[in-house]
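Feature request, filed as a ticket because there's no other form

It would be nice if the structure record came with a short human-readable summary line next to the C-alpha cells. Right now we just get the raw output. Example of a typical job, pasted below so the devs can see what we mean:
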Amino acid sequence: MPIPRRALQVCLALTFPSILLGLASPAQAANKGDVSLGYTRTGSNIFYPNTGGLNGWDMDGQIHWKPFIGVEADVSHYGLGAGSGVPRTTAVLFGPKLSAGTAGFKFFGHFLVGGAHSSNNGAEPTPISGGAFTYALGAGADVPLAPLFAWRVQVDRLSAPNRSPSSATHARFVTGIVFRF
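Raw output as currently delivered:
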C-alpha cells in the first residue's frame, strides 16, 4: 500500500520540524498545533459487508491556522492482529478542525475527507481489495495531563458511502495521547 505509507511519511515530515520549532517556549507551545497517537475501533460493516468492528491505531496532526480553526491530517489502520479473512484497512483523511477550550481542556469538532484502501489477502469465500472515498464527521475532547500532553477521547461518524452497506454501524472511537506544540 504505497499511497497510505507515503501520506504518513509526508505527515511526519511536516510535523516533526514544527514540533522542534514549537519547543522554544512552553507559553507558546500549546498554541501552534498538536499530534496524537492512539487506539481506534470502528463499527461493523463500515468498509465492506459482513465484517465486524475493526481495531487499529490512529495518528493525527493539526496545525492551527487561526486561534480556533486548524487543518488536520488523520491516518488510521484497522485489522491489526486479525485473521486473513478480516480486511486490513488504511484510511487517510484531511480537513478543517474547530476547537475551543479553557484551562488546558480542549473540545473540538472536525469534518475530514479522503480515502481508504482495504484488502484481506484473497481470503475465502470473499476476497476483498479496493479503495473508497471516505469521510469522518465527529467531535472530541482533550483532557490535560501535563503542560504539553493531554489525553484524547473522540467519536466520529465514519463512512465509505460507495462501499458501506445500509446495515453498517458508522461509528469510530479514538483514544490516545496528545502532544501539543
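Something like this underneath would help us a lot:
The radius of gyration is 17 Å.
The first strand starts at residue 33 and ends at 42.
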